[in-house]
Amino acid sequence: MAEDINDTVEREEDGYELDNRKVSAVRLAVAAGDAERLSEVLDPLHAADIADLLEQVDSGHRREILLLGATHIDGEVLSELDESIRDEVIEFLPKNVLDDAVRDLESDDVVDLIEDMEEPQQAAILDVLTDADRVAVEQALAYPEYSAGRLMQREVVAAPEHWNVGDAIDFLRSNKRELPEQFYHVFVVDPKMNPIGYVTLGKLLSTSRDVPMTSILEDSFKVIPVTQPESEVAYAFNQYHLISAPVVDDEGRLVGMITIDDAMIVLDEEHEEDILRLAGVGEGSLADRVIDTTKQRFPWLFVNLITAILASLVISQFEETIAQFVALAVLMPIVASMGGNAGTQSLTVAVRAIATKDLTGSNVWRVVRREALVGLVNGSIFAVVMGVVGVVWFGTPMLGVVIAVAMVLNLVIAGLAGILIPVTLDKFGIDPALASGAFVTTVTDVVGFFAFLGLAAAVLI
Amino acid sequence: MAEDINDTVEREEDGYELDNRKVSAVRLAVAAGDAERLSEVLDPLHAADIADLLEQVDSGHRREILLLGATHIDGEVLSELDESIRDEVIEFLPKNVLDDAVRDLESDDVVDLIEDMEEPQQAAILDVLTDADRVAVEQALAYPEYSAGRLMQREVVAAPEHWNVGDAIDFLRSNKRELPEQFYHVFVVDPKMNPIGYVTLGKLLSTSRDVPMTSILEDSFKVIPVTQPESEVAYAFNQYHLISAPVVDDEGRLVGMITIDDAMIVLDEEHEEDILRLAGVGEGSLADRVIDTTKQRFPWLFVNLITAILASLVISQFEETIAQFVALAVLMPIVASMGGNAGTQSLTVAVRAIATKDLTGSNVWRVVRREALVGLVNGSIFAVVMGVVGVVWFGTPMLGVVIAVAMVLNLVIAGLAGILIPVTLDKFGIDPALASGAFVTTVTDVVGFFAFLGLAAAVLI
């Protein structure tokens, strides 16, 4: 035991990051075919770090590590692995190692592991489980994807409402084998199995045996419907600082519980999704192959091509104007680019505020007005700057006026588009992080080029 | 009690979101000066929802709510409030309400509340606290900002290593007044107060009294240095699924603990910071005034103006070419825009991977190669598409060739810039989320215009 602890503390001082030295050590051990040395490096690593290690090396190395160090790949490592390489790892693990790893997992982790697998692969994994576990997994899979039902664990500790603290403690003592691996609350339920509150283990430990459970319930507690989307679950945990929460079915009966560590993972994934979707990247990880990454990025680039061609069509309406006055071609990207950036600013704030439920029907018009005003103020400042640049650079005062007016106009429109487009998409049930960017830049490009070139055609020629 | 529970459950069914009906009800009550009605609406709301409500109304309404419903603004509401309006709220709260609210808070929440305040305001709040609490807060403020020391709570439950389960339970029973409000582990410490492991409360409850504490320690446990940045703390909680972790000083002595709910808040804030910085928004919230928002967004727009002018300077080198061949002005934004988008894609993936420690020295060159290849493949596809568009639209085969070549070149460069720039910034200790965007678009604009117009000048004229 003492040795284990030293290992842990020593590792701690290195910082959390799986560092280069460890990755190199693994590479060397694998290159030398030295299973013992490999074990020495992998042994002190947390499952999450072993998973990261497997994600960071290329697929050739990965295969060698799996062959030489298979025994280190337990259930926990499997459930930490990024989906993109989990299938590959499962394929290359010796059957007996895989079976052990799967048996090792809690039912909610098995669900997470197999929910995206093809039928035959799924069946092969289910076969390994005990009957009780298999039933639990199959029931979880019956709930909609990304729902609380998929996220929850079925093992909970529930106490009838007539129990006192002593009853609950005696129950825990005599059922230690069936207790969840981690739990933080005892849920108190009525005779219909509806949860009516919970008691923290700390309170349970520090309260006399004869006190009724119902008199030490926590002030606030949240019940999660089994069909609730996991993103809402994560929001509730973050908003209300929940540690664990009971999950109930349609009739309000306790069917499982969700703990904050799982909610934190969902929150993290939701953020990742938002940030990647805003950049038009779709899902994807660094471990993906070139062809997969290319495919993920193609659609958004294609959408961008369409919007860019639209902008070009606007420009082509003014070919004659440009031919007479080439300075327009030099300056026009500035107006469009400033609009695009201002639009992205508003858009990002709006998308984030929608995700955190800070932007609602009750304040949307105030925010719209604010965005327009911000566009107006910043637009005016940059209009003056660019007006001066236009005059100084090209010596044509009217050109300065044209670019200034176009700048103000485009920055106001950018502010409005940046908020109205995501709000509208959200109303129609479309994820605003996914689609807003293309719409907003189309608007700012078209407005930017049209305002600048149109004004120029009217005024300069 | 029964009524409270009904309230909670009823509220639950409405969903988590503070809905419009409630905001309207508050507005109506305030307009009518009806304090009783206001209480009826605010009473069942969670502190986090009252805080959201205050953020969503404008500052006139906010003041009226504070006057009429001051008693509902307790410590918890204060600590849930967004910083941008917390100062305003504190200013308008009656002194006695504020004092009660502050006394209500745990020491870590007081720290969070006052760390950004001016000296006199800070002193006014510290004065309200008991001596013990004030000392605790002042000690926390002595740690660096955004460090584990600021985030931790000082109340912990520690057990000497020679205790058995019975000793620990007896200690909890006889010290219930001094226990932290929420705790999930008992930390086991050696005689020097160095933590050597922890025991979950669930294990404590289900184990016989005579079992030594050291024999039921959890497998893995993480110690957090008091000076560690809070972003690293949040990473560790998420990576290793920690629920609570001991915080230690330079000599490894236990000085406090951090719980997952606080780590989750930090993780959420870090994400918000990343997503807003990527869009060049800086800090800021919807509750900010127009002038504040304008100031936050101005710097990035200014940087963008500089990069746009740089791009214009490149274009101006080719004025003669454009004058002879106006189609170039029509098509050139397409090349730049595609490059900008592809660069943003790579950049976002890279920034996110750096944040999650998935992009490290051990795989950076593989990722760079991958980005270049993805740029090459997508660039080639779009080169063909645009080549055809160029020929069909303008009937000049060489124009098609020029745009195709420029497209491939810019997408490869975009992929490289999108990964190399954030990695380099990170190496120099600059947050890649903050500064990468400007660099990457400068590169793709300059390369896009230069390649396209330069090739055109060489080939077409």
TrEMBL record, chains A, B:
InterPro entries: CBS_dom, CBS_dom_sf, Mg_transptr_MgtE_intracell_dom, MgtE_N_sf, MgtE_transporter, SLC41_membr_dom, SLC41_membr_dom_sf
Keywords: CBS domain, Cell membrane, Magnesium, Membrane, Metal-binding, Transmembrane, Transmembrane helix, Transport
One of the record's GO molecular function terms: magnesium ion transmembrane transporter activity
Membrane topology: Multi-pass membrane protein
Cellular component GO terms, alphabetical: plasma membrane
Complex formation: Homodimer.
Described purpose of this protein according to its UniProt entry: Acts as a magnesium transporter.
Name of protein: Magnesium transporter MgtE
Protein source organism: Actibacterium lipolyticum
Gene: mgtE_1
